[in-house]
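User: Thanks for the earlier help. One more: MFS transporter. Can you show the sequence and predicted structure together?

Assistant: Of course, both are below.
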Amino acid sequence: MLVPVRTDTRRVKVAVAAAGISSFALLYAPQPVLPQLAAQYHLDPGGASLAVSVATGALAIAVLPIAALSEIVGRRPVIMTSVIASAALGLLLPVAPTYSVLLVLRALQGIAIAGFPGVAAAYLVEQLGKTGVAAAVGAMIAGNSVGGMLGRLSAGFSADALGYHGALTVVAVVGLIFSMITVFALPPAPPREPARNPLKKALTGVGSALAKPVLLAQYAVALLAMGAFVAMYNAAGFRLTGHPLDLSPAIASLVFLSYAMGSVSSATVGRLVGRFGRLRAAVGALLVTAIGVLLTLPDSLPVVIVGFLVLTGGFFAAHAVANGWTAAEAPADARGQASGTYTLTYYLGSSIGGTAGSVIYAHAGWSWLSAATVAWLVLAMAVVSVVARPRRAAAAR
């Protein structure tokens, strides 16, 4: 009896890791070529960053309706449709005739991608149970970070030789390969009884997902931490290729190797949660992220690189804790809605924070951008601390 369970668990981990690689490679593919887009279409950093923010904003808007849809049609069909459609749209991006058309395609791609992160955590709980979800969520987020790194590096290294059109094509092919792995590996979810009044159930689930303060705290962490993280990386290409560092786009794209640190931290943070508890692990990870931001301030390339390594590791650890906390605390009848709400705030932070950070950088420079992102991270620490401490005190009593 145990062998099939272990086999299914491995298949689940492989499938969600591949889906994460595909989705996140495609979602952030334009990020390393933002300077080239700005030069091609005569844009400032804020205008160029829309190539990222439009997709993440559309994802944020679509994620709750798609999560509600998954309550009706099931999680697996939604995930399968998501990875296939997002890869197909990725193949269309390089042939977009204008920047406006590219932004429209990116918005559609964001909607398509929403199907995976919006329901993945709920699918994992249903497939593996609460006791097995932590390791699987870690594998999924590790796949997300690998995808983010692989997509950005593929685009960055291809841009010099192939231009941004060729760079986006390379990433689209990568996304298509990993989406096919998901299609063949993803096991069907356990059978469920058909829901009565599915629309009413979906709306009730949204209310339940918004009723628990501990869940609201995780949504705040997602919003603020993701906003800070994307803001730093949206401006990274401009800082690294500009004065005084003056790197080529291909060399500057090596900063995305920092995502390897995210893969390690997200996959291992479960041990810290087991030892210190979710609250201390979350606050510690956010503090590490803020320290990493501060390390990027000096005009010294080695120190800047260390800063990106530290902030990336800290961010993905914080994300893993908050995402797993959401999945564990969500009411049984609202797992999809809680997962969807977390994903909504996560990508709303990416869209708003990423654009706001690019505007701050364009008008005030790297120091002010760093100050703003540290302030967002401190606010996230305060929110989760205030909300979670009473729960810990009550549990102790």
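User: Great, one quick takeaway?

Assistant: The longest helix spans residues 130-185.
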